[in-house]
Amino acid sequence: MEIMICYNAPVIGRCVAQMIEDRVRKNPNLVLGLATGETMLPVYADIRRRCCVGTLSLCGVTIFTLDEYVLPISGSAGSFAKKMVGNLHGTDVDWTHVQMLDGSVSDYARECALYEQKINCAGGIDLQILGIGVNGHIAFNEPESPSDSKTRMVVLTDATREANKWSFGGDMDCVPTHALTMGIGTILNAREKEIMAIGQLPYVLPNFKTS
Predict the structure, then answer these.
(1) What is the DSSP pairing of strand 67-69 with strand 62-65?
(2) Which CATH architecture has domain 3-134+187-198?
(3) What pTM was estimated for this model as a whole?
């Protein structure tokens, strides 16, 4: 495990975007898992910049998003699907290669099982980019989620809903109580994982790099 400490969010964005660019250069058909939360915004900004100047191409990359709120309409305001469209606007991504969970379906179990099948058919995820929630969750796997869990529907804690209310105009009453998410087992099956966290460092970590 390598821990890298960066001094501001734009530097984190450049570091993670550089990692993605390096992996895509080695494998233009990379299978990439992407998060959609606030932590990822500097990464997407730098991905768009790299696509604009031509150092990065996403045209052969397959993308799987981590999670999605349970909402009445797919792609509605606050949804991760809508955010992903904005995040990747201006890149050369092939949208037929972008897989996103649909939180508006009536059969959540079937939707989650199909998502697992799609990941398997793609050969698994090569690189999974993750943020980490205020209570330590990855994707929408709240604390005490099983380590072998697969894509499924989950109940969101009040802490997670509070942290995500910015996506819904700051109104907690508008934040969904349920979501579909890749499971911890699904995430751990990725061949490479990168976890991002933005905030104050409460203690000195040994054996870390600085950027």
Answers:
(1) unpaired
(2) 3-Layer(aba) Sandwich (3.40)
(3) 0.90
